[in-house]
């Protein structure tokens, strides 16, 4: 059976909205994704949520963004409290749920490109700091996996999606320095792979399935596979010819491919169920494969920038296309 899922983020800025998206995901998708609502502020952003999971490193929110500190600051404590509240909501609404579930976390390289060192500038500038962050993230995500499993006992398959939108820029030397006049040096493939291996390996060691998502052009899909990703999640429109081959190889190997084919914001001419299904069918024809249980239909990227109406419609379109393909 072809599955349907979301990338994870949704519109909204309240606890009520969070609960509504939990219900919508559980009711609509065959692989529900635990919602993220970055509209609630920095403590609910991709970076803030990941720092809430990291227990070995302190952080606080500065005018320029998140920065590591000697001890957890008030904003990191608020981020942890919000994460716990969200998991309480998931536990309450998921009491009767039985099936697969997906959670998301920012990856080590996206964090290194967005979090600052205590002295300023991004962690990306400090080899030791970015290594320490990746290892702390691996430990924190493993604990998060155990917490989710404890709270939602009916989960039969737990997927952890590691979000790496900044990875192509990190490897390409395109991340700006604090001054804005220069760029951080590029990270080579072996080091990029090593940090990912720590995080993906910790997820697998905790009994979950590690995927990597990137809706940025030039995502190094072969490197992600080599680092231990058991699933790849992409915006299909941004995948080049080499990436198409990697996606096909991934499906042939029995690992997951999540194809982002539903617009993440409402277009002028919204597609119907048949158009979304046909887009996936054309891609399968191109690579010479049949639909199967390793294929997942999703929106192209997160839905936090969409209207609530379109976000709900995007879930419905993904689910309808998955059923048709099945």
What can you tell me about this protein's structure?
The strands form two sheets. The chain has a seven-stranded parallel β-sheet. Helix 10 links the parallel strand 8 and strand 9. With 326 residues, the protein is an alpha/beta fold. It has two domains: 104 residues, no CATH class; 185 residues, no CATH class. The protein is globular, with a radius of gyration of 19 Å. The termini are close together. The mean pLDDT is 96. It contains eleven helices and nine strands.
Keyword list:
7-stranded parallel β-sheet; 326 residues; two-stranded antiparallel ribbon; globular; alpha/beta
Write the layout of secondary structure elements.
Layout: E1 3-4, H1 15-28, H2 46-53, E2 58-62, E3 65-69, H3 74-93, E4 99-106, H4 108-112, H5 127-151, E5 155-163, H6 167-171, H7 189-205, E6 209-214, H8 221-226, E7 231-235, H9 241-252, E8 256-262, H10 273-287, E9 295-299, H11 308-325
Parallel strand pairs: 1-9, 4-5, 5-6, 6-7, 7-8, 8-9
Antiparallel strand pairs: 2-3
Mean pLDDT: 96
Secondary-structure-derived class: alpha/beta
Helix content: 40-55%
Major sheet details: 7 strands, parallel
Element-by-element helix/strand order: EHHEEHEHHEHHEHEHEHEH
Q: What is the CA-atom radius of gyration, in angstroms?
A: 19 Å
């Amino acid at each position: 059976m072809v599955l349907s899922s979301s990338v994870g983020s949704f519109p909204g800025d309240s606890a009520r909205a969070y609960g509504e998206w939990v219900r919508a995901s559980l009711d609509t998708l065959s692989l529900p994704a635990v919602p993220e609502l970055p509209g609630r502020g920095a403590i609910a952003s991709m970076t803030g949520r990941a720092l809430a999971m990291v227990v070995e490193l302190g952080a606080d929110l500065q005018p320029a963004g998140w920065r590591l500190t000697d001890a957890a600051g008030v904003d990191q404590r608020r981020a942890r409290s919000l994460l716990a509240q969200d998991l309480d909501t998931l536990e309450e609404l998921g009491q009767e749920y039985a099936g697969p579930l997906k959670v998301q976390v920012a990856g080590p390289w996206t964090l290194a490109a967005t979090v600052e060192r205590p002295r300023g500038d991004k962690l990306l500038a400090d080899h030791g700091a970015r290594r320490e962050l990746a290892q702390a993230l691996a430990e924190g995500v493993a604990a998060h996996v155990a917490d989710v499993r404890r709270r939602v006992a009916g989960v039969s398959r737990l997927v952890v999606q590691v979000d790496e939108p900044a990875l192509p820029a990190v490897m390409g030397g395109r991340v700006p320095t604090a001054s804005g006049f220069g760029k951080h040096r590029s990270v080579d493939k072996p080091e990029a792979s090593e940090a990912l291996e720590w995080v993906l390996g910790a997820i697998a060691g905790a009994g979950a399935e590690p995927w990597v998502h990137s809706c940025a052009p030039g995502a190094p899909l072969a490197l992600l596979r080599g680092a231990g990703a058991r699933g790849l999640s992409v915006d299909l429109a941004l995948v080049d010819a080499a990436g198409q081959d990697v996606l096909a190889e991934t499906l042939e190997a029995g690992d997951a491919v999540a194809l982002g084919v539903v617009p993440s914001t409402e277009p002028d001419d919204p597609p119907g169920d048949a158009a979304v299904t046909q887009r996936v069918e054309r891609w399968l024809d191109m690579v010479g494969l049949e639909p199967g249980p390793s294929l997942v239909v999703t929106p192209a990227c997160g839905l936090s920038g969409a209207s609530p109406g379109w976000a709900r419609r995007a879930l419905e379109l993904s689910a309808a296309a998955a059923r048709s393909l099945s």
